[in-house]
Design brief:
The protein is an all-alpha fold. It has one domain: MFS general substrate transporter like domains (Growth Hormone, Chain: A, Up-down Bundle). It contains 10 helices and no strands.
Length: 205
């Protein structure tokens, strides 16, 4: 029995889904500075506590990024993206509910760093490299990188509005839900017009 030959996604599908995911993931991350004052004042923590958690987040992002890329190559990018998005939502929720510096560091630092590793460039660039024609690959990666910058333009004002209008904890709940919506793009792409057998035979996403 002949194996099903996997078909590539269109460039529009890859870029639209990849840009959407990177915009949300990087956009939320760029707005973390807005949460310093309300969180530290409400919890009576120092700025150093908040800054230390974000420093751990950057280290965690770099460390887990290596493994996120390896797992995406082995089991498919969609699974890594979905797992990363779920971690993102959990980390943001834990960040809002943390009652001690240790829990805050674990959620805002370790968990969110791992989430960003699974929802940003380490995974998206791998998909672009496999799906986009070499002649257009550099351009496509530039589009994905620009989406991260656009996320800052889009999400920072939104997060500021939510904090001022609803309070930082309620705003964190909203942003947590948006982070989980990162799962929508890869799930829709892999399910639309594909069969289970084709998905099983190819790890194109």
């Amino acid at each position: 029995m002949q194996a099903t030959v996997p078909q590539k996604l269109s460039m529009f599908q890859v870029l639209a889904c990849g840009a959407m995911i990177v915009t949300l993931s990087m956009g939320i991350r760029h707005g973390f500075g807005l949460w310093l004052q309300p969180i530290t004042q409400a919890q009576n923590w120092s700025r150093e506590t908040f800054s230390f958690a974000l420093a751990i987040q950057n280290l965690s992002w770099g460390i887990f990024g290596v493994f996120a890329g390896m797992v995406a190559d082995r089991f498919g990018a969609a699974r890594v993206l979905i797992g990363g998005a779920l971690l993102y939502g959990a980390g943001l929720a834990g960040m809002a509910l943390a009652t001690s510096p240790l829990v805050f560091t674990l959620t805002a630092g370790v968990v969110l760093g791992a989430a960003q590793a699974g929802t940003t460039y380490a995974v998206i660039y791998g998909v672009i490299g496999r799906q986009i024609d070499p002649a257009k690959r550099s351009w496509a990666m530039g589009v994905a990188a620009a989406a991260g910058s656009f996320g800052q333009f889009l999400m920072v004002p939104v997060e500021g509005f939510l904090i001022s209008g609803f309070g930082w904890q309620q705003a964190r709940s909203w942003v947590s839900g948006w982070a989980d919506s990162c799962t929508t793009a890869p799930a829709a792409t892999t399910s639309s017009g594909t069969s289970r057998s084709r998905w099983a035979s190819s790890r194109r996403w």
